[in-house]
Amino acid sequence: MERKTALITGATSGIGEACARRFAIGGYNLVITGRTADKLEKLKAELETEGVSVLTLAFDVCNRDATRKAVDSIPEAFKPIDVLINNAGLARGLEPEYEGRFQDWDEMIDTNIKGLLNMTRLVVPEMVRLNHGHIINIGSVAGDAAYAGGGVYCATKAAVKALTDGLRIDVAHTRVRVTNLKPGLVETNFSNVRFHGDNERADNVYKGIEPLRGADIADVAFYAASAPEHVQIAEVLVLATHQANGTVVHREKH
């Protein structure tokens, strides 16, 4: 049986890395991307112990020319791309909108929206041509409603929902499937990135609650990809048990 191939952006850590590990265990060949070549190579060596083939592509999805060159360089052995997981994304800062940093805004918009669009535009046409494929966009509960200090990040994840819904409409005449996977609190380096390396502040995000793990989200992504071709898991909201929505979290006191 011929192996399927999954292309995962932002695979060097967090949900992206977890997805790479889960899909490798599931027998997928992998194209893993990220900005740090040595991290990708290290992960490749670990994933190949599952008996799958792994291609690494080091580039920034925000850079359209670099993204195009990377996608164009994928060899025939890793084609067609059966599953595209648009995972690369980040949050920066938690200041009120009127005090936000322009650089933080640009980075979130360029990565979370434009990066996703770059990959979609370059990979999905071949899926449409072949009448086969699956796009899984990693959104967020933050895309459902804004919270204090998170307006721009929430806006980018609301955009992910709109772009995912729009793409699903645009490919409805094909057998290409489109999923918006929306995690709540997941313990990764997400908060460390948001707070510019302030580890103590990042750790406080997860105090008093057992958060989700990257592997939990990867399991859901793999389930969606493994559903029969006539089944489209359009949208999934995944929360920690003590999280009700983007702002209501019950924390145990110790």
Mean pLDDT: 95
**End-to-end distance:** 52 Å
Report on the biggest sheet.
Answer: 7 strands, parallel
Backbone CA Rg: 18 Å
List keywords for this structure.
single chain, 8 helices, 254 residues, 7 strands, alpha/beta, 14% strand
Molecular structure report:
This protein is an alpha/beta fold and 254 residues long. The chain is built from eight helices and seven strands, in the order βαβαβαβαβαβαααβ. The chain has a seven-stranded parallel sheet, with helices on both faces. Helix 4 links the parallel strand 4 and strand 5. The model has no long low-confidence stretch (mean pLDDT 95).
Topology of this structure?
Elements: E1 5-8, H1 14-25, E2 29-34, H2 37-47, E3 54-58, H3 64-72, E4 83-86, H4 102-130, E5 134-138, H5 151-170, E6 177-183, H6 190-194, H7 199-204, H8 214-226, E7 235-238
Parallel strand pairs: 1-2, 1-4, 2-3, 4-5, 5-6, 6-7
Entry summary:
It is built from eight helices and seven strands, in the order E-H-E-H-E-H-E-H-E-H-E-H-H-H-E. Strands 3-2-1-4-5-6-7 form a seven-stranded parallel β-sheet, with helices on both faces. The termini are far apart.
